[in-house]
Amino acid sequence: MATDGRRSVALAITGASGAIYAVRTLAALLATGLDVELVVTDYGRRLLRDELGEDASVERLEPYLVGRYGEAVAAGRLTVLSNRDLGASLASGSHRAVGMAIVPCSMKTLAGVAHGLSRTLVERAADVMLKERRTLVIVPRETPMSLPQLENMVRCAQAGAVVLPAMPAFYQHPKTLDDLADFIAGKVLSALSIDHDLISNWSGRVQATSKAHE
Ligand SMILES: Cc1cc2nc3c(=O)[nH]c(=O)nc-3n(C[C@H](O)[C@H](O)[C@H](O)COP(=O)(O)O)c2cc1C
Predict the structure, then answer these.
(1) What is the pTM of this model?
(2) pLDDT tens, 51-80?
(3) Any residues with Cβ below 6 Å from ligand 1, and which?
(4) Helix segments in 115-162, DSSP class H
(5) Of all protein residues, whose CA lies closest to atom 16 belonging to ligand 1?
(6) Ligand 1: which of 13, 14, 105, 106 to mutate, judged by most atoms within 8 Å of the beta carbon?
């Protein structure tokens, strides 16, 4: 919880490809009215700009989100924390964030979390989630993967994290990159037990509106 009783969640953006997953997840969390405590690594900052343009730089994220996803994102409150600040509230088990997601998660940060290194606020906050038995969602992105990378995912899963690779599905016939991002963001919110309408529940049949064979 935030100090005024509002519910809060932590989101980390690291330097793996897939910035669109990060901004979609952030917008969806804010649209639910949550306080979002955001930490972006140096390479996460670079990937936001490289993949989405200068308008998506951390300093301009709020107007970027409103422009891309609409005024609904204003329901939440965004606080950006320095990845170098190991004294931030998120670094303590007394912080009552309901959970944390790392979207996308680089193999470097994955390794740091898997081995409990706590060198940065992202790593420390993830470590806190694990030790406090709260929800930690890790969205790794790399291909192919080495044995150490696979083992690091296993270590995180064994410690209680939800390992949710950036692997969008195609059975709902996505038409745009935003459809793919909605799918991953929806999975992240579901893993955090946060209601959303980003993806419809599987009904047992592929949607009839499919244009796949046209
Ligand atoms: C354009 C670009 C794309 C990258 N994509 C990935 C990726 O998909 N997965 C990954 O693990 N690392 C990727 N990297 C490498 C990471 O950014 C690098 O290992 C960095 O040290 C990660 O640091 P961080 O975890 O503190 O953000 C990429 C780097 C660049 C410059």
Answers:
(1) 0.94
(2) 999 999 999 999 999 999 999 999 999 999
(3) 14-17, 41, 43-44, 50, 106-109, 141-142
(4) 121-131, 147-158
(5) 15
(6) 106
